[in-house]
Structure to design on (444 residues):
């Protein structure tokens, strides 16, 4: 029994030693007083971060903009909402989780090359989607193929920034900046999708948006060039193994975080998907619902931008912040459920967008805080896969619940309950992290 206890203590000591390498320099308690020159970011590093923000933004922004298309497809193809919701559901779910399908290609060709291929697949698939003659063709082209293409973009840019900026003191801020793009393009695509549908119909809207996301092509080419230049400066042993380490599967935090990712993926984005239809069902025009999603995206953008400055001003404490904003996010679903007038929808949308944006801005850096550098790659992929599955369940069951009950009230009530479970799990993760830190202090 004592041997097992000592073994656990030693393992926590090793984990903490590795994890402290991810903290800012002033938190590592260096013993020497030698002044350290702050490394300035290079032009390539700046371009990489900006490109990552835009690529991530165009990928997720397009998927979120499909919420305006959702009620239109129900009317055009005369299908159940549970089926029409799969267009956006498969797109966002695969955008989050589909990167695991690219693992062998990443190992062989590198992340930058795969990002270029994913962008081309997405642009071509969206363009072909306008020729769909039934809902299943829309699901395949706009949902599945586009989601698979964009999945390597959304996750690949995080890996590249984490690799290229390895050791840079602004890496956490750069990683927190990447999600800002998705919230920015969320309200841009939502607004444009409504305008395009009004002017050119749903097929014209898909055609024009395919031209917009084609702007990802030159960004992907530049990202690939920066990766190749970076790899030339590294030895074979130093090159990052992006995925493929089984050490993390012995860490209970992975399973707790994965449960949270599944639940969070299930309930946290339901407003993005169903708010337009919910607004219509409460007696308002589709344009009013699209406007709410636009406001939600604006609040999301403000939160993610604030999150970047929060990383600079208050480094660390990511899990604690996640717990707080997960709790607040649960209250926003209650506002939308119980305050039925348009004012209630507006307030709920703004608060939902802000709290969700804060959670996403902290998401990657919280994973870096919980897991070691060796565990980060596979933990990020595993958590995203589970979160994507949860997101897919939400898209189907959300539409199914509405078809059966003729209301989204049950879905919103379920979101409130699940948000409470997520908060409890985050509290457990906080306790585990504090215990690990206390043990390292006792050892030292």
């Amino acid at each position: 029994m004592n041997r097992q206890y000592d073994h656990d203590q030693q393992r926590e000591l090793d984990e903490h030693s590795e994890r402290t390498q991810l903290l800012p320099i002033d938190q590592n308690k260096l013993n020497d007083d030698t002044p350290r020159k702050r490394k300035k970011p290079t032009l390539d590093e700046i371009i990489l971060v900006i490109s990552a923000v835009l690529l991530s933004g165009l990928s997720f922004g397009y998927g979120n903009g499909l919420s305006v298309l959702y009620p239109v497809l129900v009317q055009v193809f005369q299908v159940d909402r549970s089926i029409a919701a799969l267009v956006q559901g498969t797109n966002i779910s695969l955008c989050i989780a589909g990167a695991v399908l690219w693992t062998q290609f990443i190992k062989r060709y590198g992340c930058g090359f795969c990002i270029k291929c994913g962008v081309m697949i997405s642009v071509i698939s969206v363009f072909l989607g306008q020729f769909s003659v039934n809902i299943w063709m829309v699901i395949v082209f706009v949902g599945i193929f586009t989601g698979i293409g964009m999945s390597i973009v959304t996750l690949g840019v995080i890996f590249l920034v984490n690799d290229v900026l390895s050791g840079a003191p602004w890496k956490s801020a750069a990683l927190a900046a990447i999600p800002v793009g998705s919230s920015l393009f969320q309200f841009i695509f939502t607004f444009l999708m409504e305008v395009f549908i009004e002017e050119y119909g749903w097929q014209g809207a898909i055609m024009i948006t395919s031209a917009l996301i084609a702007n990802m092509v030159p960004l992907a080419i530049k990202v690939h060039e920066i990766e190749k230049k970076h790899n030339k400066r590294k030895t074979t042993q130093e090159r990052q193994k992006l995925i493929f380490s089984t050490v993390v599967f012995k860490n209970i935090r992975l399973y707790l975080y994965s449960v949270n990712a599944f639940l969070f993926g299930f309930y946290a984005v339901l407003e993005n998907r169903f708010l337009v239809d919910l607004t219509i069902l409460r007696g308002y025009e589709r344009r009013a619902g699209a406007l709410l999603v636009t406001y939600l995206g604006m609040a999301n953008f403000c939160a993610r931008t604030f999150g970047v400055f929060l990383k600079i001003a208050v480094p660390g404490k990511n899990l604690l912040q996640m717990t707080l904003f997960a709790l607040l996010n649960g209250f926003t679903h209650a506002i939308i459920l119980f305050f039925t007038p348009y004012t209630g929808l507006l307030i709920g949308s703004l608060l939902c967008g802000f709290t969700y944006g804060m959670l996403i801005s902290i998401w990657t850096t919280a994973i870096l805080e919980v897991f070691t550098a060796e565990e980060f790659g596979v933990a990020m992929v595993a958590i995203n896969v589970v979160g994507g599955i949860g997101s897919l369940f939400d898209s189907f069951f959300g539409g199914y619940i509405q078809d059966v009950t003729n209301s989204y009230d049950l879905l919103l009530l379920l979101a409130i309950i699940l948000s409470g479970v997520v908060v409890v799990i985050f509290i457990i993760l906080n306790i585990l992290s504090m215990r690990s830190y206390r043990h390292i202090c006792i050892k030292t």
Notes: The mean pLDDT is 80. DSSP finds 15 helices and no strands in the chain. The two ends are 23 Å apart (CA to CA). The first helix runs from residue 2 to 19.
